[in-house]
Prior knowledge:
Blueprint: H1 3-26, H2 36-43, H3 56-63, E1 66-70, H4 81-86, E2 96-100, E3 104-106, E4 109-111, E5 118-121, E6 129-132, H5 136-139, E7 147-149, E8 155-157, E9 160-163, E10 180-182, E11 187-190, E12 193-195, E13 201-203, E14 207-211, E15 214-217, E16 219-224, E17 227-231, E18 234-239, E19 245-249, E20 258-262, E21 265-270, E22 274-277, E23 284-288, E24 291-292, E25 301-302, E26 314-318, E27 334-336, H6 339-343
Parallel strand pairs: 1-2, 2-5, 3-6, 4-7, 5-8, 6-9, 7-10, 8-11, 9-12, 10-13, 11-14, 12-15, 13-16, 14-17, 15-18, 16-19, 17-20, 18-21, 19-22, 20-23, 21-24, 22-25, 23-26, 26-27
Amino acid sequence: xSISKVTFIAAAILLLVSATLGSxxxxxxxxxxxxxxxxxxxxxxxxxxxxxxxxxxxxxxxAKPRTIKVRKDGNGDFKTLTDAVKSIPLGNTQRVIVDIGAxxxxxxxxxxKQKPFVTFKGSASSTPTLTFAGTARVFGTVYSATLxxxxxxxxxxxxxxxxxxxxxxxxxKEEQAVALRIGGDKAAFYNCRLIGFQxxxxxxxxxxxxxxxxxxxxxxxxxxxxxSLYLGTEINVLADQGLAVITAQARYREDDSGFSFVHCxxxxxxxxxxxxxxxxxxxxxxxxxxxxxxxxxxAGWSDxxxxxxxxxxxxxxxxxxxxxxxxxxxxxxxxxxxxxxANAFISLAYIEGSKWLLPPPN
Length: 362
């Protein structure tokens, strides 16, 4: 066989493989919620079926995972999460699964940037709670988090993460209290509950995936500059006192950050909650196939008293339902998206998931 034919065949194989791998990214999330599980299983396969397609460093880490156990009763490797995280070496190259036993862990936990490939794993039947009462007044907003993750390839499954500081009264400054800050890239959260009031989740930066989670709060309780996909997640709004806003996405310029909520549920108490506000000049937030209760303000969105931002914001909705989704009273600077406009936000391609997203740990 000639060299030219070999080259041609090799190129064709590479093209075919590339197209096959890319299809996982581009497969749209189905509009029918009963198809979500089968869609996820088809597009997010376990490591054993993905070798050769994932980020090389991730494949190295997943090849030989190790588990350390945290038990409050002393029947594990560590009694605290802080000590377990300290045991992970800087420059870690191995998946470390921190198996967390039942109970309440009153700790302020940080996973440093130099400690990638960490998994926090709890049990769905006896979910552990991580809690701390840090506030912006003491630590600064983003550093008030109960769990602060700066490293890449973090995974959490079956965990409750709570900031137990009191609900802001409006009488004191800097009462914001973050439960989770995720600042690393390529992180996934499965069946996690994030509990707080103002600024519950700092979705700070990087690509993130949330599935079957629960997020509760009052004002700006999902905020930051992340590029994140929220799938099948319940958003519980406490809109019974004063201003209530779900998202404060912090996009300052034409970059690729933004929040996409797909097949989520927006519930809560009270009325008048905004889906998002223009906390910065160019926020980007999309709700697709989402059920919205009457807790949502009929106007939907706020320009945060900055009308000059109306032409720059990207606030969109696509095929949502429920009493809070009625488009008739929506502000003019929001959009009801066409299928073509929505497609970019309703697939794993939005977070480039085919290279790093794996199912939750068993």
